[in-house]
């Protein structure tokens, strides 16, 4: 029934329909989802008490909460949504398959997690390299390698289980877990490393497939003929590329074919392992009939001969064998033969003596050797030749690579990867939070048992020279594990071939989807194109990139060279899984509530340390390259990536670190050596809520050089309820202005009933703990003289008083819009400091800080100080130069002498104009038009030049400002200021000067004389820093304070008035 129909129904019928739509959760409580037009809802966030209006929930007991429904759903609605929640299937399910399947996943622990992990962990290394590792490293060394790697993956699985059970893990698997736990920077860097590892794993599996094909199945199907390594590598490249293209086509056509073959591939792996165990048991009854031929103690490749002897008796005649023809220049007994062949006998020994033979003692220890060396049985007697070069043309079995322990670690580690297979399929599981930990850990324990038992059984059954024979040349070119298996080596050959094919297809299927998940997150801009795919969601572009990177591994053409590369990337991924779990556990965040309880931060830290150790054990240079790649990706995401807030642990770690640092800052007062300006910038917003003086932000950036605390604030008049949205808009504009100036800091806009209270609140409470501001930066209120009221003047003076009371420094910039931007570069000029009084040394520190910024870097610093009549100016200059030397400041020093002089007529006239205006605005109630007209007349008088005033005759009567004073008030004001005047002054003064306050005259005199000196010396400087005189203690003089400052800065362009905070900020000590 539509909402419109419900609203038009009769009241009784409407109630019945409403009751049908309600869901009863108890006997007397109905939780209903509201229906109705939006027009019926009240616009106010408060409950409307108007009784004339029909209530929205008529007859229901939830009317009290009806206003919350827009933002907060009812509990029944929430529970209904949660009950019907279905996670999209991930990874390999086709779009069209997903439409036909049920929404609720049905896979359990065994099918959904245990078997996929088993299939991914067991594979190419077990069948092609484990026997060689056992023979080279020995049983004890191999046991150490397998144990380290298995413990590493087990600890990682424990950490991964904790993360995976702390909520739902959508598509992306390990990438999702790391990115949401450690943030987009770490997530993107490690996600790409995991992608590269999965891609190179595909290369390794394809190379394993081709190695099995060309070595054991069809060794004659070679493109490049020859027995040397170069021909073998070229054949691997050609066939590997063809196999890669074929697999990519299968993946492109549809992954459902890969899924259908997954069980076949897994069956091959299990069948091969069972055949191996069956062969071990059979050796106890009857060892296999495979023999190894030794010449002296050197193992021979028996592919080209059948009889392990120099001669044999055929029809009662002694004839030479195939070996004789190989080592001698003819088949006749009198032929010239190889010297080593002549001096040593041929011996035939069992390749697999059996489990009860005691060969385990010989295989306990390792036998490492350089590349190109003979594979020898050390216990066999032989006659060695001195200084004889290695003869590679004879059918000896050689080491193809230099072997050492750390190399074997790097080659073996890929055989324990694949533990993420269960977490990658979390959406397909019936109960992911139960299945992932149990299935993954059980798979790791099972495969660890298989690997460790294989290490022991291989060493106990197989002869050492056969174990070290990587390709099985000494046993008729059969895989070494194949001659152990029962009933035939072909079980291992076929099983390992299909296992490698399946693993390669799985890698080419999973890697593009992982890249697609990273690209769709939008954290790496240049990967955006790989987030697109076919109409059904298949990642076509990601597949193409994966094939390209996979081809790089295939061109390397060596399984032993590719394995350490992907080991690095997998180890880095596992390292950050452990780090994510450790960080989350140590932070104790409220959202960290894993259902898997058998974890501890020490285990995660141990796993992280083991991963890092294995990286450098395997290959320190590959480890550094992987770290550099991850670091570059991290910085790129930090600099260019999209801003994401995923509630990650690194942000929580930052919060904890910030809290700890703030508490530490509160423990002891700040030392002078650690003082730096922590700025509170008081900005003004215009009617559009934009920053009125953006150069104020530029100047604060230049002053800070990007360091320290900066808080940019503004105040809006009104109430927060009416102007709350405007405050948020203004704050966003402040952030945008700060970003355009590349300014690091915080922004805040408050709403107050008046500007004065707002600024007072900010000065008192901005910052937190030890990270509070110690200096306030603001612009000079240029329009205060034209203002119709005195609020601008009062606000400024009160700000000065409050910063002084709070012991904070104050910087007031005049003509701030004329200051240079961050893009400008001042080629030359000076920064002039006028040091009148010492209030902490901030005046001398500011130009040094400005010089650190590229805008002011080429400006020189000059310091001026003022000497009175009784001061020794020469000695003052020497003392000041020595003081600056100890402060390590480079500056020119100049002492300016100011002699006592008579107060000029200009000073009296400025004072008269100032007092007349003050009295006018304070005591007279003028109409608006009169006040504007008289203020303009006073402004014209105030801006008259000094020269015009001094050129007038002493007895001339200047033009009077026509004030609207009564005669009684004028006489009263004159009598009030008459005391304290000298007789001589009374005779010399003009009639209108006789009522002036002599204190104001003296102050004006100082301002005029000092301004003359400053203008004379610093008119062309880039910036002038002046001591800011404090406001009068008696508030009756406030109206004149601004005039003194105006006169002091008259004729100067860029001026900063500086008032210290009452503490030393610069020191001569180290």
What would you say this structure looks like, in words?
With 1070 residues, the protein is of the alpha/beta class. It has 37 helices and 17 strands. The strands form four sheets. The protein has a ten-stranded mixed sheet, sandwiched between helices. A three-stranded antiparallel sheet has the order 4-3-7, with no helix packed on it. The chain is elongated and about 140 Å long. The two termini are 82 Å apart. Mean pLDDT is 79; it is low at 1-60, 84-104, 924-929, 943-967 and 976-995.
Features:
alpha/beta; three-stranded antiparallel β-sheet; potassium:chloride symporter activity
Topology:
Layout: H1 3-8, H2 11-21, E1 23-24, E2 30-31, H3 75-83, H4 95-100, H5 109-121, H6 124-128, H7 130-164, H8 174-182, H9 184-217, H10 229-253, H11 255-285, E3 291-295, E4 298-299, E5 311-314, E6 317-320, H12 322-327, H13 339-343, E7 346-350, H14 405-412, H15 421-424, H16 432-461, H17 464-467, H18 480-484, H19 489-521, H20 540-556, H21 559-587, H22 601-618, H23 620-640, H24 649-667, E8 679-682, H25 694-704, E9 710-717, H26 720-740, E10 746-752, H27 755-765, E11 775-779, H28 791-805, E12 809-814, E13 830-835, H29 842-851, E14 860-867, H30 873-886, E15 892-897, H31 905-923, H32 928-942, H33 946-950, H34 967-976, H35 983-988, H36 998-1018, E16 1023-1027, H37 1038-1049, E17 1055-1059
Helix pairs in contact: 5-16, 7-14, 7-16, 7-21, 7-22, 8-9, 8-21, 9-10, 9-19, 9-20, 9-21, 9-23, 10-19, 10-20, 11-19, 14-21, 14-22, 19-20, 21-22, 21-23, 21-24, 22-23, 27-28, 31-32, 31-36, 36-37
